[in-house]
Write a structure and sequence with these properties.
single chain; alpha/beta; five-stranded parallel beta sheet; 35% helix; globular
C-alpha cells in the first residue's frame, strides 16, 4: 500500500500578502524599518550606522561613529561594511534611508531604516556630533 504525501499546510491570504510586502515570517533579520529608540539599542549593541544624507547635511550634525555614504554613493557601501553586522541607515526624514536599506538588503546586508530620520534619533536621545 502506498501513501500519498501529506498536503502542505494552507497559507492564509494575510500570510501571502505579508510575504509580498516583506512582512513574512521571522527570518532572524532585523525589520526593514525601526523606531529611533530601537535604532539606538541596535547601535549600542554593535550595529553599524550609515548616514545617507548629503555632505552639507552630515556637517550639520551626525551620530558619533556613523559612516557617511550619501545615497548617490550607496553602491560603495559594501566596501565599508561588514556582512555579519546589522546596519542602521539614517537620513533626514526616513525616505532616503528606506531606499538605501532596500538596496543593502538586496545585497545580503541585515539593514534597517530609522523611521523619522535624524530628528527622531535626537528626540529618542541619540547622540549627535557637530
Amino acid at each position: 500500500m502506498t501513501t500519498s504525501p501529506s498536503p502542505a499546510p494552507a497559507t492564509s491570504f494575510l500570510d501571502r500578502i505579508k510575504s509580498l510586502f516583506g512582512g513574512g515570517g521571522d527570518d532572524g533579520r532585523v525589520k526593514p524599518t525601526v523606531t529611533a529608540a530601537r535604532a539606538i539599542e541596535l547601535v549600542r549593541d554593535g550595529a553599524t550606522m550609515v548616514d545617507v544624507r548629503e555632505t552639507n547635511e552630515w556637517k550639520t550634525g551626525h551620530a558619533p561613529g556613523a559612516i557617511h555614504i550619501a545615497l548617490g554613493n550607496i553602491d560603495q557601501a559594501p566596501k565599508r561594511l561588514h556582512k555579519g553586522r546589522t546596519v542602521v541607515v539614517v537620513c533626514a526624514s526616513g525616505m532616503r534611508s528606506r531606499t538605501a536599506t532596500k538596496h543593502l538588503r538586496s545585497l545580503g546586508f541585515d539593514a534597517t531604516s530609522v523611521s523619522g530620520g535624524m530628528a527622531a534619533w535626537q528626540r529618542a536621545g541619540g547622540a549627535v556630533r557637530r
